[in-house]
Amino acid sequence: MTLDNHIKIRSITAFVDPREFDQNRNFEGEIDKSINLLESLVKTLRNKGLEPWTARISFPENSVSIFKRIVDNVDINRFLASLGYTDFTPSMSNIYLDAVEKGFYISFNGLKAIEKNLVGEISRFIHKASSRNPVYATRISVGFHEEPLQTPYFPDSTSVKGGVGLSFLYPNFIMENLEHGLTGAFDEFKKVVSKVAGYIEAEGFRVLVDYSLSPWMENSIIDLLQTIGYPAGQPGFNYGVLLLNKEIWRIADKYAAGFNEVMLPYAEDNGLKKLGENGSIRAKDLLLYTATCVSGPDMLVVPEDEEKLAGFIKDVYSVYTFKKRPLAARLIPATGKPGDKINLGKFGETALVPY
Fold first, then answer.
1. Lowest-confidence range among 257-261, 295-299, 327-331, 340-344?
2. pLDDT tens-place string over residues 55-77
3. What is the pLDDT of residue 61?
4. What are 104's strand-pairing partners?
5. Cα torsion at 27, 32, 36, 38 (round to 10°)?
6. Would you list the domain boundaries of the chain?
7. 1-355: CATH topology
8. What is the pTM of this model?
9. Residue 250, Cβ neighbours under 10 Å: how many?
10. Going by DSSP bridges, is the β-strand pair 80-86/104-109 parallel, antiparallel, or unpaired?
């Protein structure tokens, strides 16, 4: 099978079996097993002519002692790794910082942070990490959901029941197939997902797919929405997002896990980045879009201000209390004023936006 040039396997994720982490068992062996599984499945897909963009490992919720052992002992040079949904503990700030510096991803439980009045501490930690290197802040999110979320999308990823996760990069695929209508384009995408999931299933593994529609630079959600008649910043944009969400929910089947919604990560969509560069978008606009998409306040580069960032996190919580669907916020505070650009590594030059 050869994938259309307009679609990619965004990630393949091995979810570490939580049962092996119970009671502080020998977790190193389970991690090795997950790494071997991941490498085997990547090889299986390559033999089918498929090349996953990233390989990932997602850990279960962990006790403090196991959390430290993972950060200290696991080599993640060959893959991305999420430490799971974590209750923020101020005394562990240096361990969290060590984790993101080494390349681990982490999501703090925003509901618990609100309950324990720790949002200010989280804002302070994010500022500290970003001051070391803004890229470190791209590995930190604040999640809002009652239970850990099993998704291949990082940072807010936790292994709940083990298995193998898949995500896809496909905005341009939908655009190229609009001759079939929006519904027909999503039907074509589902056919691709079923084939790829079938290859993994044939190896005897439980398959989980997050059908979320997420961008990567020129593979843009903003361009897709403009193509179907709903340009960003104009009345009707949220309705356009809703139309896409309805299609995602319609095709989400037995494999569905995670967010399964449109995602609008600011620093990952060239359309959004252009809006930021010309001063046409603010952080509060992305928060508004959260009403109809899961990750409106995601990958936002904002001026340093601990109090404002903490307030913004509280605003995300306020949206969650009414939306009652999983939300996650990821903000990168940086030195400078709106319009100034910073280098975010693989995310490229990105302009700061005002709150």
1. 295-299
2. 999 999 876 677 888 888 888 88
3. 84
4. 81
5. 50
6. 1-355
7. Anaerobic Ribonucleotide-triphosphate Reductase Large Chain (3.20.70)
8. 0.94
9. 13
10. parallel
